[in-house]
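re: the backbone from monday

yeah here it is again, tokenized this time
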């Protein structure tokens, strides 16, 4: 039985086409399915928002936390992918100091790893050259998708890109999770950057949580009025999965229009609030809060200097990317 199935899947045109369709269209769906299963809208709303705490990372100078993702992103570009994965392990140290709950760790892991794995898989399909060794060659019936098949070199290239995605996501989520939006504006002004940049970063940090809050409110209001947003218990049953997809597609106008109108109203209200507080009238904003440099700030700066020195040594000795 097994030899017959193997012969049909890998040596018959119909079987090869079936496997190619699975590789191209079914495997990438596992990422969104895992995201919906373990994160969902409410989980993403909670992760992408500031959470008050009294940890060492929370007490760090906001300027350090604002420069941290920029610094890590530059290092990830300068280093090769193997060293970038080591850099990713270093970015996990602040998370150990935060001591997040297991539920939040699960959500963060899915949120960070899902785009990275999808990037590896997509590059394995489309980052191919004529001389690459194919793990599975697509038949002629799949020529319309624009790829020769799943390539080993493409997967390796996808791992390169995923490393940089993991590093920047881990560093950026530290900023979002531990820094108040008002502190972002303060840090930007103290770094002698235009105040509008700080406001733009603060609005960007708060935009997604606000949108998800509105979306969640609209969904709850629609459920009160009788609309069904429940997910199927068994995704492998085609009828239930099809019914769920059909209901979500039909609900798109019902959800997007109120969220869009609410976002536009929120932007208008924010502009009125900024004007009423004379935002950007003076070049340097005054503040009642005084942030003094602590021992933790000095340690963080020393660690950053050590990482920068290590990256410079790797590049100088030819072991980095350049």
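seq for it, each position gets an aa:
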């Amino acid at each position: 039985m097994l030899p017959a199935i193997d012969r049909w899947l890998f040596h018959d045109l119909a079987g090869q086409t079936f496997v190619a369709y699975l590789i191209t269209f079914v495997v990438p769906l596992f990422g969104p399915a895992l995201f919906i299963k373990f994160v969902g809208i409410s989980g993403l709303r909670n992760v992408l928002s500031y959470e008050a705490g009294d940890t060492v990372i929370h007490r760090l100078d906001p300027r350090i936390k604002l420069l941290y993702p920029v610094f890590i992103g530059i290092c990830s570009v300068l280093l090769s992918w193997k060293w970038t994965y080591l850099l990713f392990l270093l970015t996990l140290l602040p998370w150990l100091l935060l001591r997040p709950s297991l539920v939040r760790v699960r959500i963060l892991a899915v949120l960070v790893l899902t785009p990275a794995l999808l990037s590896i898989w997509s590059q394995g399909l489309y980052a191919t050259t004529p001389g690459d060794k194919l793990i599975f060659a697509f038949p002629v019936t799949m020529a319309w998708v624009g790829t020769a098949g799943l390539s080993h070199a493409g997967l390796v290239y996808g791992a390169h890109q995923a490393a940089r995605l993991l590093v920047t996501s881990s560093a950026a989520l530290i900023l979002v999770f531990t820094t108040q939006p008002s502190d972002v504006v303060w840090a930007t002004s103290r770094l002698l950057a235009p105040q509008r940049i700080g406001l733009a970063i603060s609005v960007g940090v708060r935009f997604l949580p606000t949108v998800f809050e509105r979306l969640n409110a609209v969904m709850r209001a629609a459920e009160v009025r009788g609309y069904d947003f429940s997910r199927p218990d068994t995704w492998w049953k085609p009828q239930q999965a099809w019914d769920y997809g059909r209901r979500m597609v039909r609900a798109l106008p019902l959800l997007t229009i109120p969220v869009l109108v609410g976002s536009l109203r929120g932007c208008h209200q924010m502009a009125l609030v900024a004007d009423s507080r004379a935002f950007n009238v003076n070049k340097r904003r005054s503040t009642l809060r005084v942030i003094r440099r602590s021992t933790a700030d000095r340690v963080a700066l020393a660690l950053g200097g050590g990482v920068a020195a290590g990256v410079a040594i790797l590049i100088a000795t030819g072991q980095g990317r350049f």
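The CA atoms of residues 312 and 320 lie 9 Å apart. DSSP finds 15 helices and two strands in the chain.
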